[in-house]
Amino acid sequence: MRTILLFDTPATRLSLYPFTLTKPVASIRNGIFTIAERWRRRTRLQVYALTEAYLQQTVTAAKGDYLVIDASCWPDNASMESLLQLKPGETLNDAQGILGYCSATLPAYQQFPVWPAQTTTVANQYRLQWAPQLVQDNQRWMRYDLDLLDFTFQDAHHNSNTIFGDYPVVIHATASVRACIINAEEGAVVIDEGALVMEGSHLRGPVYIGKNAVAKMGTNAYGGTNVGEKCTVGGELKNCILTAFSNKAHEGYLGDSVIGDWCNLGAGTFVSNVKNTASHVRVWHHGKQMEMDAGQKMGCLMGDYSRTAILTAINSGTTIGACCSIHHPMLPEKNIPSFWWGNQQGYVLEKAIADTERWMQLKNELPPKNLRQVLNHIFEQSVKKS
Description:
The chain is an alpha/beta fold. It contains seven helices and 35 strands.
């Protein structure tokens, strides 16, 4: 049986900053699933990432060949069928470059076929090319992923809830949803395994509440709210992604934003997603080292392990690196590097690791085995650039 390897490129990793600081592209969640999970569910094959050395996990040797696919490539039916038909030595391209190739031996990061036996070129394929796309296409991916759900859900919703609309409302048998208003007129609402949606919450689809996540009393979740595993949310949310283990547990607005793993937004943290002038929001592109147009609505892109203090106000189009503690009374900068402390770069590495591990203890989770290795690498790189 063949194995799928989802490969990063240096250009894609820079373009999807800050989330690629701490994970390969394949581990980014866009929609209900990560990119790797989506490929795994679509193909039923083993899927691994092929990425930089400090993030690379061990790949179990395959009994068959390796299908090596650009991790940023969208697995629609046409592209997936073409890629699955590749044989060793064959490559599939579009005008942007390699979409995928098949190898009889385990390849290395940035190792591409020099003289493929056969190259087929297809029309341009959708690729995830920079971080604001996670927000812009969030609802599209959520709708796409509905067909990949495989859990048992409740046939009858609790009679304390008010539910209306023609899209599905899917509540896992182990989830608890009581005295809530659920509007499925514009998109599905999915409440995953072990999730708790407390009384008085209003959910307007498409909405996803992930495994063991909590929506506190009176949560107002508008279309595109996408809450990952063991996240806690409250207040007002709209078209935003919290990837996993993060908190936006109190009042405050979060819109058109992506919040990475293990982040915490202090009570009263507000994120602006529209400029006062109603002009387009510009976001720093880490690869091109310039600001670029991200459309009329764009909030915040926050890397893993970062936090804000109470009453923090964040400008539209703000990018925040990994392991930041933002606790300055004034508006923070729009492009905040990793290991930012208060209003300057200076979060001590050992303190950052200890603080991150304490946040994990609060959710009864053990630190990843490679946590120190990953944060040490990011810290060393940030010191070199400062």
